Amino acid sequence: MTYPRKVQVLRIPASGSPFELVTVNTVTYDNSDFLAIDAQTIDLEARLGHVPDLRQFHHRTTNLKYLCLFDKNLSFGAVRERWQGEYYIYKCLNGAEAKLRENRHLKRYEKERNYGDAFIFRVRYVGNFEGDWMAVYGDMEDFARSLRHEGSAGHKLETMATW
To answer: What distances in angstroms separate CA 24 from CA 57, 133, 161, one per listed residue?
Structure first.
């Protein structure tokens, strides 16, 4: 296949340490391989066709078994053109079962529902590649830079924390 196989993901560490922009491979969605705990996550992952491979973070600062995926289209209104697209955030809502501590960054916005590391990525569009529908991911550098300097991306993060 010719679809992009890497994606930039903004890692929001639970510890409160600085945000980290990481590039990870993607894995082709296969319902039997994923441990999604809710129907929305299963549906979103299936629609994307391939998703960020976050296994390198499993058991250290997150528990993949308990990650939920949420999405929101930020292409409308006063959004910088470079930021337009569909945004997704993987986050854990059940800290007790997942045995994770609260996410200190997201706790500022949503006090009860964010545990372990969270991961944000952007999809520019979903296209047909040789008969398969696959997401084409957008870069997150400008968004990450704004977030680090407490720019307008902070408001978007606040919104994502409450999805």
So the answer is: 11, 20, 22
